[in-house]
Design brief:
- By secondary structure, this protein is of the alpha/beta class.
- The protein has two domains: 4-137, 3-Layer(aba) Sandwich (Rossmann fold), CATH 3.40.50; 141-210, Winged helix-like DNA-binding domain superfamily/Winged helix DNA-binding domain (Arc Repressor Mutant, subunit A).
- 48% of the residues lie in helices and 12% in strands.
- Helix 5 links the parallel strand 5 and strand 6 (126-127).
- It is globular and about 50 Å long.
Length: 232
Protein backbone atom coordinates (compact mmCIF):
# COMPACT_ATOMS: atom_id res chain seq x y z
CA UNK A 1 0.00 0.00 0.00
CA UNK A 2 1.40 3.37 -1.00
CA UNK A 3 1.99 5.67 1.95
CA UNK A 4 0.64 9.22 2.26
CA UNK A 5 3.60 11.61 2.29
CA UNK A 6 3.45 14.52 4.73
CA UNK A 7 5.37 17.74 5.27
CA UNK A 8 5.12 19.73 8.52
CA UNK A 9 5.33 23.55 8.59
CA UNK A 10 5.47 25.13 12.06
CA UNK A 11 7.91 27.47 13.77
CA UNK A 12 7.58 25.83 17.21
CA UNK A 13 10.22 23.07 17.64
CA UNK A 14 8.28 21.33 20.43
CA UNK A 15 5.09 21.20 18.39
CA UNK A 16 6.95 19.89 15.32
CA UNK A 17 8.52 17.21 17.52
CA UNK A 18 5.11 16.12 18.79
CA UNK A 19 3.71 15.92 15.27
CA UNK A 20 6.71 13.93 14.08
CA UNK A 21 6.16 11.37 16.84
CA UNK A 22 2.45 11.13 16.00
CA UNK A 23 2.96 10.70 12.26
CA UNK A 24 5.74 8.15 12.66
CA UNK A 25 3.44 6.03 14.81
CA UNK A 26 1.10 5.41 11.85
CA UNK A 27 2.22 2.79 9.34
CA UNK A 28 0.58 4.30 6.23
CA UNK A 29 1.93 7.83 6.78
CA UNK A 30 5.39 8.90 5.64
CA UNK A 31 6.85 12.09 7.15
CA UNK A 32 9.25 13.41 4.50
CA UNK A 33 10.30 16.72 6.05
CA UNK A 34 9.50 19.69 8.25
CA UNK A 35 9.89 23.44 7.90
CA UNK A 36 10.14 26.28 10.43
CA UNK A 37 9.18 29.16 8.12
CA UNK A 38 6.92 30.01 5.21
CA UNK A 39 9.82 30.38 2.78
CA UNK A 40 11.20 26.99 3.82
CA UNK A 41 7.91 25.14 3.36
CA UNK A 42 7.45 26.70 -0.09
CA UNK A 43 10.90 25.44 -1.10
CA UNK A 44 10.39 21.98 0.40
CA UNK A 45 6.93 21.61 -1.14
CA UNK A 46 8.39 22.30 -4.58
CA UNK A 47 11.26 19.85 -4.05
CA UNK A 48 9.46 17.03 -2.22
CA UNK A 49 5.91 17.26 -3.63
CA UNK A 50 4.16 15.84 -0.52
CA UNK A 51 0.58 14.61 -0.56
CA UNK A 52 -0.31 16.64 2.56
CA UNK A 53 1.14 19.67 4.32
CA UNK A 54 0.27 20.40 7.96
CA UNK A 55 0.52 24.20 7.91
CA UNK A 56 0.68 26.71 10.75
CA UNK A 57 -0.43 30.30 10.04
CA UNK A 58 1.90 32.29 12.25
CA UNK A 59 5.41 31.72 10.92
CA UNK A 60 8.32 34.10 10.39
CA UNK A 61 8.60 35.81 7.02
CA UNK A 62 5.90 34.40 4.74
CA UNK A 63 2.86 33.38 6.81
CA UNK A 64 1.06 30.08 6.35
CA UNK A 65 -1.83 31.51 4.34
CA UNK A 66 0.44 33.18 1.80
CA UNK A 67 2.61 30.06 1.70
CA UNK A 68 -0.52 28.01 0.96
CA UNK A 69 -1.45 30.32 -1.90
CA UNK A 70 2.01 30.16 -3.45
CA UNK A 71 2.35 26.39 -3.09
CA UNK A 72 -1.03 25.66 -4.68
CA UNK A 73 -0.29 27.98 -7.59
CA UNK A 74 2.38 25.57 -8.79
CA UNK A 75 1.30 22.32 -7.07
CA UNK A 76 -2.51 22.32 -6.85
CA UNK A 77 -2.62 18.59 -6.07
CA UNK A 78 -1.10 19.07 -2.61
CA UNK A 79 -3.67 18.92 0.21
CA UNK A 80 -3.01 21.61 2.80
CA UNK A 81 -4.43 21.19 6.30
CA UNK A 82 -4.15 24.26 8.52
CA UNK A 83 -3.14 23.39 12.09
CA UNK A 84 -3.00 26.62 14.05
CA UNK A 85 -3.97 28.58 17.15
CA UNK A 86 -5.98 31.14 15.16
CA UNK A 87 -9.77 30.66 15.09
CA UNK A 88 -10.94 34.13 14.02
CA UNK A 89 -13.15 34.45 10.94
CA UNK A 90 -10.54 36.40 8.97
CA UNK A 91 -7.95 33.64 9.34
CA UNK A 92 -10.40 30.82 8.61
CA UNK A 93 -11.83 32.34 5.44
CA UNK A 94 -8.46 33.64 4.22
CA UNK A 95 -7.13 30.08 4.49
CA UNK A 96 -10.10 28.70 2.55
CA UNK A 97 -9.73 31.33 -0.15
CA UNK A 98 -6.04 30.43 -0.40
CA UNK A 99 -7.05 26.82 -1.09
CA UNK A 100 -6.65 25.02 2.25
CA UNK A 101 -8.71 21.81 2.42
CA UNK A 102 -8.92 21.64 6.19
CA UNK A 103 -8.65 23.75 9.32
CA UNK A 104 -7.95 22.44 12.83
CA UNK A 105 -6.87 24.11 16.04
CA UNK A 106 -3.66 22.99 17.72
CA UNK A 107 -5.63 21.71 20.67
CA UNK A 108 -7.19 18.99 18.49
CA UNK A 109 -6.91 15.42 19.72
CA UNK A 110 -4.33 13.20 18.04
CA UNK A 111 -7.09 10.98 16.65
CA UNK A 112 -8.83 14.03 15.17
CA UNK A 113 -5.63 15.14 13.42
CA UNK A 114 -5.16 11.67 11.93
CA UNK A 115 -8.78 11.54 10.74
CA UNK A 116 -8.38 15.00 9.19
CA UNK A 117 -5.27 13.84 7.33
CA UNK A 118 -7.21 10.86 6.01
CA UNK A 119 -10.09 13.09 4.92
CA UNK A 120 -7.87 15.58 3.09
CA UNK A 121 -5.87 12.74 1.53
CA UNK A 122 -9.14 11.36 0.16
CA UNK A 123 -10.03 14.70 -1.44
CA UNK A 124 -12.46 15.81 1.26
CA UNK A 125 -12.56 19.01 3.27
CA UNK A 126 -12.58 18.99 7.07
CA UNK A 127 -13.05 21.49 9.88
CA UNK A 128 -12.54 21.09 13.60
CA UNK A 129 -15.71 21.42 15.66
CA UNK A 130 -15.02 25.02 16.72
CA UNK A 131 -14.10 26.07 13.17
CA UNK A 132 -17.19 24.42 11.70
CA UNK A 133 -19.32 26.59 13.97
CA UNK A 134 -17.65 29.73 12.58
CA UNK A 135 -18.40 28.59 9.04
CA UNK A 136 -21.98 27.61 9.85
CA UNK A 137 -22.67 30.95 11.55
CA UNK A 138 -21.36 32.81 8.54
CA UNK A 139 -23.38 30.90 5.99
CA UNK A 140 -26.54 30.76 8.11
CA UNK A 141 -26.71 34.55 7.70
CA UNK A 142 -26.83 34.34 3.92
CA UNK A 143 -30.12 35.04 2.17
CA UNK A 144 -31.63 31.78 0.85
CA UNK A 145 -31.40 31.37 -2.91
CA UNK A 146 -33.85 29.41 -5.01
CA UNK A 147 -32.20 26.26 -6.44
CA UNK A 148 -33.01 27.32 -10.00
CA UNK A 149 -31.08 30.56 -9.46
CA UNK A 150 -27.93 28.82 -8.20
CA UNK A 151 -25.26 28.67 -10.88
CA UNK A 152 -27.57 28.73 -13.92
CA UNK A 153 -24.66 27.61 -16.08
CA UNK A 154 -24.71 24.20 -14.35
CA UNK A 155 -27.08 21.34 -15.08
CA UNK A 156 -29.32 20.03 -12.28
CA UNK A 157 -27.03 17.03 -11.84
CA UNK A 158 -23.93 19.25 -11.70
CA UNK A 159 -25.58 21.35 -8.98
CA UNK A 160 -26.27 18.15 -7.03
CA UNK A 161 -22.62 17.12 -7.33
CA UNK A 162 -21.42 20.59 -6.33
CA UNK A 163 -23.68 20.55 -3.28
CA UNK A 164 -22.21 17.22 -2.16
CA UNK A 165 -18.66 18.47 -2.77
CA UNK A 166 -19.47 21.50 -0.60
CA UNK A 167 -20.54 19.13 2.20
CA UNK A 168 -17.15 17.40 2.08
CA UNK A 169 -18.13 14.20 0.25
CA UNK A 170 -15.46 12.31 -1.69
CA UNK A 171 -15.96 11.12 -5.26
CA UNK A 172 -16.69 7.58 -4.08
CA UNK A 173 -19.37 8.81 -1.68
CA UNK A 174 -20.92 11.08 -4.33
CA UNK A 175 -21.09 8.16 -6.75
CA UNK A 176 -22.81 6.03 -4.10
CA UNK A 177 -25.21 8.81 -3.11
CA UNK A 178 -26.31 9.54 -6.69
CA UNK A 179 -26.03 5.91 -7.92
CA UNK A 180 -23.62 6.78 -10.73
CA UNK A 181 -20.08 5.67 -11.54
CA UNK A 182 -16.97 7.32 -10.12
CA UNK A 183 -15.92 8.16 -13.70
CA UNK A 184 -19.21 10.02 -14.24
CA UNK A 185 -18.61 11.93 -11.01
CA UNK A 186 -15.15 12.95 -12.24
CA UNK A 187 -16.63 14.12 -15.53
CA UNK A 188 -19.25 16.21 -13.72
CA UNK A 189 -16.55 17.74 -11.50
CA UNK A 190 -14.43 18.65 -14.54
CA UNK A 191 -17.45 20.37 -16.08
CA UNK A 192 -18.18 22.21 -12.82
CA UNK A 193 -14.60 23.46 -12.51
CA UNK A 194 -14.64 24.65 -16.12
CA UNK A 195 -18.01 26.41 -15.89
CA UNK A 196 -17.28 28.07 -12.54
CA UNK A 197 -13.72 28.92 -13.64
CA UNK A 198 -12.15 27.39 -10.53
CA UNK A 199 -9.01 25.29 -10.40
CA UNK A 200 -9.62 22.97 -7.47
CA UNK A 201 -12.13 21.49 -5.05
CA UNK A 202 -11.49 24.06 -2.31
CA UNK A 203 -12.29 27.00 -4.63
CA UNK A 204 -15.46 25.26 -5.81
CA UNK A 205 -16.53 24.78 -2.18
CA UNK A 206 -16.03 28.46 -1.40
CA UNK A 207 -18.09 29.45 -4.47
CA UNK A 208 -20.86 27.02 -3.50
CA UNK A 209 -21.07 28.08 0.13
CA UNK A 210 -21.10 31.77 -0.76
CA UNK A 211 -24.55 31.05 -2.23
CA UNK A 212 -25.64 28.85 0.67
CA UNK A 213 -25.25 25.62 -1.31
CA UNK A 214 -24.00 22.69 0.77
CA UNK A 215 -23.89 24.49 4.12
CA UNK A 216 -24.44 21.20 5.99
CA UNK A 217 -20.81 20.44 6.75
CA UNK A 218 -19.18 17.04 6.97
CA UNK A 219 -16.41 16.63 9.53
CA UNK A 220 -17.84 19.13 12.03
CA UNK A 221 -17.41 16.66 14.90
CA UNK A 222 -14.21 14.92 15.97
CA UNK A 223 -15.86 11.50 15.64
CA UNK A 224 -17.31 12.10 12.17
CA UNK A 225 -16.58 9.49 9.54
CA UNK A 226 -13.80 10.26 7.10
CA UNK A 227 -14.66 10.08 3.40
CA UNK A 228 -13.13 7.64 0.99
CA UNK A 229 -9.97 7.97 -1.06
CA UNK A 230 -11.15 8.57 -4.65
CA UNK A 231 -11.02 12.27 -5.37
CA UNK A 232 -10.13 14.56 -8.20
Amino acid sequence: MEKTTILIADDEPAFRSGLRALLRSVADLDLIGDAASGAEVIRLAADLQPDIILMDINMPGVNGIEATRRILTTSPHIGILMLTMFEDDDSVFAALRAGARGYLLKGALKAEILRAIQTVSGGGVVFGAAIAQHVLRYFSGLKPVEPADLFPELTDREREVLGLIAQGYSNVEIASQLVISAKTVRNHISNIFSKLQVTDRAQAIVRARETGLGVQLRGSRPDSAAPGHDAR
